[in-house]
Automatic annotation (TrEMBL):
Pfam families per record: adh_short_C2
SUPFAM superfamilies: NAD(P)-binding Rossmann-fold domains
Protein name: SDR family oxidoreductase
Organism: Rhodococcus kronopolitis
Coiled-coil segments: none
Superkingdom of the organism of origin: Bacteria
InterPro entries: NAD(P)-bd_dom_sf, SDR_fam
Amino acid sequence: MATGRLDGRVALVAGATRGCGRAIAVELARAGAYVYATGRSSRHQGRSEIGRPETIEETGDLIVAAGVRCGSALRVDHLDIGQVEALVDRIRAEHGRLDVLVNDIFGGDRYAEWNKPIWEHDLAGGLRMLEMGVHTHLITLARAMPLVLETGDGLVVEMTDGTHEYNQNYRQLVGPYYDLVKANVERIMKGVTVELAGTDTTCVAVTPGWIRSEAMLEIYKVAEDNWRDAVLAEPSFAITESPAFVARGVAALAADPDRRRFAGQVLTSHGLAVTYGHTDVDGSRPDCWGHMAAGSPEPVDDWR
């Protein structure tokens, strides 16, 4: 892997209980950064409304299992301004710097309703989705950015779902609120990029492909070590990728001294892998978005 070292750097991965956020926290720590990993589900205080069994403390355990002891796994609700302010105060007091901010907070997909127009979609659930996927990002940026800017050559990553080209179209299947969340995340990144003009801080958005998250593996009744068994029933599952794939890309980007060339762009997990020379855990480079843009041709394995 071409990932450089992040020794002496401090990172905050907001939304690191599971999936991509968890993997990014682990990979940033593996590269040498001190990582603050946050989430709501806790083995001590119970699950969040998402209802998943993963906890933020497990993320901390995975950081240690990766062979590094450089991180704090904290229960933080990023809709609570006071909790976010306390988190940033803690980072400032303990390290006096914040080099990398990754906004990966969501969990609102549980409220998505397929094939329903806005007048039929559950309103309360839709508005809650916007809180979880947009308000959390805005609150975290508002309170954490001053420390990033004080630090200097920082990186802000807004995690999204979909390329710029893909998200220019309306997502009919998942409903209006999910579409708004993902459109807003890219728009937030664009706005922050403009506002960062004249600074040394870079803001980008990053999208994985079809992620083999904990929930997705459960849906297809497989585990990471036998995920290809699901391809028999769902051939398109062959284009999926592990959370580590995009996480390795984010870690490589954070260590790149020339990352400002990507400012204001939506980067893909595959594109990052091509740029920095790493692969997914199985040695492949899945190109989910390229495959979709080409019309999802067969064989799917040609796009790995």
